Amino acid sequence: MSEARAATEKLQAELHGLGVTSAYEVGDGETISVWIGLVVRYRDGFYRWQEGPVKRRHLGTDPLGCAMRVARRFQELQADIPLWWDDLARELRGVPVQDYP
Asked: How far is it, in rounded angstroms, from Cα 91 to Cα 60?
């Protein structure tokens, strides 16, 4: 098992433990989609997460700490959906999804 896949699996398990059960690995062994527009990648010893235009990183040796930060942001996004979400949803999923974040 590669370092990236192991780190990704650890992060996903921590996210699920924190209640973020919708997060899933996208199939490349290093990327987890948490919510539309919020993804986490493992590369070069860091979890690098991106939400819209905002980019953050967290040490790869601390999957729980990263999961806590990502889960907190996930909850904030769901509570107050950002303005960019509508445009991104339309682009990625099409117009019918407008009413479903």
From this structure: 31
